[in-house]
């Protein structure tokens, strides 16, 4: 059995070496990033299998040495002649020296190789090219063969190590099974590149690089823990170069066994012997497949919101005929065959030029020139018509000034296909185009004009220029709004004096505008009132005139009528006027009528003036016994 184990160790090492050499050339020929990254794991597996085989040989020599010593003791009978000493067991001493010096040194080199390879591959993948499509079929076929060979051999070695308790076979078996998984991933990546989705190769290479970094961290942790591990005589320690992470990836079934043992220990009874656990253990693969199927089915439909549009891609390429998906529910092939990229095309997007926003400073309501408004403000070059002399005679400053300005640019995507497919990063390109037009405009514009009255005109001109640049590049976007806000001189040592001068000018302009508006308000209040009073006086005069004319006409007509009545009957007219005068004269007076003539009545006349009836209203009588009288 020991010879069988050693032979298996040699076969593992030779197989890993041949597969590594062949896979390296094949991956390099096909430009497969996943294959090149996976070759590192296979190469590390070659080293681990070689070191494991050497340790296996040393342990076998020690076992044979111990058997020979035991046989000699039995044959001679005198145990004093064969007492154990340092020189008695050279094979054991060689194995101990190997485990004390060689294995830690190899583990340190293994950690450096893993960490250095992870760092190098992470940087190299930024510029890695796509796989060559013309060689994908050959690469896919050969790596599929590698997968089958490594899987069968690794499974056999893992079972042999588990049944015969050969712990030195575990590291090589783990790398064999991991190599099988990597070869399968390379075949999948090559198949994906063949059908038009080459980016999967890069994604898998990134994942393998992260796994390589994780194994480096695990190796380093094992080295640190080995320093503080208690040494018990007769008890073998854990292999430093054995990765439990790689063993878990190569044999995921061990995770279920470990979980069952942990449950048995925590709960105090054999959970692994229950019918539910046994059913779960048998059906776990089908349950996982069912979950993956449900997950894949959930990727067959997509919901696009009213403010969005989607681009349907099949193997990374636009699907003609249904490229742009409008709002609603849409069905597609499951991922990774089809995928939908969603864009908010019906919303207005904003980019801010000239500044780097700061959420804390945005909350401030007061904007002062002497304080920063954003996390960072860029100084813009603005033309100036004034030439300022400097200290050196004969020299004059360049007719230009610096200006800090925040320019929000709002846009909306109108052609999604052009926006997404005709440019690598349309949003960044739009920002760069807008920045170019802003710089070109400000360098040809007066400083004082931008600071005062030219903001609105500058915003309109910039909007037109940016839209023209966007249309020339075919971005498929519409510029909705361009504004200029927070315009001020750069913040510096001379900013306080400049700010005070500008604030004085601005305050004067504001005072002037205030006076103009106050005068306009006074005029708006007084003029209508004067017009109303004049209209009222004219109306009253016209009314008086009409009354007097009507009265005079009525009196004239009455006189003519009286004259005709007098001419018709002077006596009747006179008597009538007399009676009318008498009625008007004695109407208010009190009168007593005496109708009897044959009696002698004594009439008593009370000539005292009576109180008028209107004075007796609301009279309040005092209560009985009261001392005063009150009236309202």
Low-confidence stretches: 387-394, 626-632
- The helix content is 55-70%
Counting DSSP H or I runs of 4 or more residues, the number of helices is 16
The backbone outline, from C-alpha atoms, is elongated
Radius of gyration (CA) equals 55 Å
Mean pLDDT: 77
- According to DSSP, the number of beta strands is 15
Strand content: 5-15%
- Structural class assignment: alpha+beta
- Largest beta sheet, briefly? 5 strands, antiparallel
Task: Calculate the terminal CA-CA distance, rounded to whole Å.
Answer: 135 Å
Oligomer: single chain
Provide a concise account of the structure shown.
The protein is built from 16 helices and 15 strands.
Notes on the structure:
It is built from 16 helices and 15 strands. With 632 residues, the protein is of the alpha+beta class. Among the domains are: 2-254, no CATH class; 301-343, no CATH class; 349-492, Band 7 domain (Tetrahydropterin Synthase, Chain A, 2-Layer Sandwich), CATH 3.30.479. The strands form 5 sheets. Strands 7, 10, 11, 12 and 13 form a 5-stranded antiparallel β-sheet that branches. The chain is elongated, with a radius of gyration of 55 Å.
């Amino acid at each position: 059995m020991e010879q069988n184990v050693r032979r298996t160790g040699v076969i593992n090492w030779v197989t890993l070496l041949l597969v590594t050499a062949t896979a390296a050339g094949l991956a390099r020929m096909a430009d497969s990033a996943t294959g090149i990254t996976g070759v590192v794991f296979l190469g590390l597996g070659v080293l681990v299998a070689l070191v494991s085989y050497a340790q296996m040989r040393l342990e076998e020599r020690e076992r044979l040495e111990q058997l020979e010593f035991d046989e000699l003791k039995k044959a001679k009978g005198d145990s004093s002649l064969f007492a154990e000493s340092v020189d008695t067991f050279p094979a054991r001493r060689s194995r101990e020296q190997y485990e004390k010096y060689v294995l830690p040194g190899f583990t340190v080199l293994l950690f450096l190789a893993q960490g250095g390879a992870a760092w190098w591959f992470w940087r190299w993948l930024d510029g890695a090219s796509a796989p060559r499509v013309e060689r994908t079929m050959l690469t896919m076929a050969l790596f599929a063969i590698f997968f089958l060979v490594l899987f069968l051999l690794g499974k056999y070695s893992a079972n042999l190590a588990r049944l015969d308790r050969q712990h030195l076979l575990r590291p090589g078996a783990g790398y064999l099974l991991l190599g099988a998984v990597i070869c399968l991933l390379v075949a999948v990546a090559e198949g994906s590149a063949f059908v038009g989705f080459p980016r999967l190769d890069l994604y898998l290479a990134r994942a393998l690089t992260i796994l390589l970094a994780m194994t480096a961290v695990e190796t380093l942790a094992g080295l640190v823990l080995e320093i503080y591990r208690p040494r018990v005589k007769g008890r073998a320690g854990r292999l430093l170069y054995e990765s439990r992470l790689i063993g878990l990836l190569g044999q995921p079934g061990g995770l279920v066994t470990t979980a069952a043992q942990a449950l048995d220990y925590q709960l105090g009874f054999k959970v692994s012997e229950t019918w539910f656990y046994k059913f779960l253990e048998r059906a776990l693969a089908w349950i996982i497949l069912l979950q993956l199927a449900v997950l894949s089915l959930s990727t067959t439909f997509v919901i696009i919101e009213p403010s969005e549009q989607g681009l349907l891609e099949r193997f990374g390429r636009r699907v003609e005929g249904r490229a742009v998906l409008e709002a609603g529910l849409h069905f597609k092939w499951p991922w990774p065959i089809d995928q939908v990229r969603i864009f908010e095309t019906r919303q207005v997007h904003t980019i801010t030029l000239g500044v780097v926003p700061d959420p804390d400073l945005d909350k401030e309501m007061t904007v002062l020139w002497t304080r920063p408004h954003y996390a960072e403000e860029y100084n813009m070059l603005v033309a100036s018509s004034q030439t300022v002399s400097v200290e050196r005679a004969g020299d004059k400053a360049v007719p230009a000034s610096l200006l800090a300005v925040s320019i929000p640019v709002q846009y909306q995507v109108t052609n999604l296909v052009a926006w997404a497919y005709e440019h690598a990063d349309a949003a960044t390109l739009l920002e760069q185009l807008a920045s170019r037009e802003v710089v070109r405009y400000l360098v040809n514009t007066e400083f004082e004009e931008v600071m005062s009255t030219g903001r609105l005109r500058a915003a309109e001109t910039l909007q037109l220029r940016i839209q023209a640049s966007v249309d020339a590049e075919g971005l498929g976007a519409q510029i909705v709004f361009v504004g200029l806000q927070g315009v001020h001189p750069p913040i510096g040592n001379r900013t306080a004096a400049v700010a005070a001068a500008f604030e004085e000018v601005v305050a004067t302009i504001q005072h002037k505008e205030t006076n103009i508006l106050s005068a306009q308000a006074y005029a708006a209040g007084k003029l209508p009132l004067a017009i109303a009073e004049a209209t009222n006086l004219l109306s009253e005069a016209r009314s008086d005139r009409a009354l007097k004319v009507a009265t005079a006409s009525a009196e004239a007509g009455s006189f003519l009528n009286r004259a005709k009545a007098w001419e018709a009957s002077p006596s009747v007219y006179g008597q009538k006027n007399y009676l009318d005068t008498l009625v008007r004269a004695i109407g208010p007076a009190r009168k007593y009528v005496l109708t009897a003539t044959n009696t002698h009545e004594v009439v008593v006349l009370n000539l005292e003036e009576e109180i008028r009836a209107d004075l007796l209203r609301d009279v309040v009588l005092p209560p009985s016994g009261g001392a005063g009288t009150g009236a309202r």
